[in-house]
Amino acid sequence: MLAIFNKQPQHRPQSNPARGQSTCAPASSTNSVAGPAPLIQIECLIKEYNTGAGPLRVLHQVSLAVQPGEFVAVVGASGSGKSTLINMITGIDRPTSGAVIVAGKRLNDLDENQMARWRGRHVGVIFQFFQLLPALTILANVILPMDFCNTWQVNERTARALHLLEQVEMADQAHKLPSAVSGGQKQRAAIARALANDPPLLVGDEPTGNLDSRTAQRIFTLFGDLVAQGKTLVMVTHDREIAQKAPRVIQVIDGQFVEQMER
Hints:
Blueprint: E1 10-13, E2 40-51, E3 54-66, E4 71-75, H1 82-90, E5 97-102, E6 105-106, H2 112-122, E7 123-127, H3 138-149, H4 157-167, H5 183-194, E8 201-205, H6 213-228, E9 232-236, H7 240-243, E10 248-253, E11 256-261
Parallel strand pairs: 4-9, 4-10, 7-8, 8-9
Antiparallel strand pairs: 1-11, 2-3, 2-5, 5-6, 10-11
């Protein structure tokens, strides 16, 4: 199980230029020793949305590196840009300028069809409200990503899905519909589904936000176990108590990053 670090965080602002400047230096991961390339590399990222009042800049020329096997919690107020950051990492949205490179792929270069195929194989997304298909059993929900991406042999998919459900202590609920299980059980099933294609990266979008505090802690502990097994996990959360237990915490403030790190 991943050790949970109790620490007094220190704040390290990212050295992003002021808005309007053109220079930007790529960020380094906190794990900056020689080793594999970052799993996530964000370089000089700007994201703007067009509004009736003109362009609204949500991310201000930010850079970030996340190494394979890191567990990163992202916190911030509503509207700070944390959800936009997650949408950049998963390819759900595109940057206005700058680069997003995940698992060796520059996401800027992919069209929508390529992006869907890439995301299905490389990123497992875990949502606050689970997003399980209500007409399918728990087991069928976990099999679905394998069917969509044509991963694993057809005759192996059920056994793999049951194995994943066993890992999250949900195998005994496999043949139930989502409506027949609790919120915590739905989230465990959603985690199994996110693991279906064995992606290197898991992204949680407020994955504990719809759970009571005790269940949220159990889910967080499960995330730690997955990281200990080699997964990389980036989790957006509004729960600062949960976030501060992660080995690395990035706070998004007005579209820029302030890193809280153990020293």
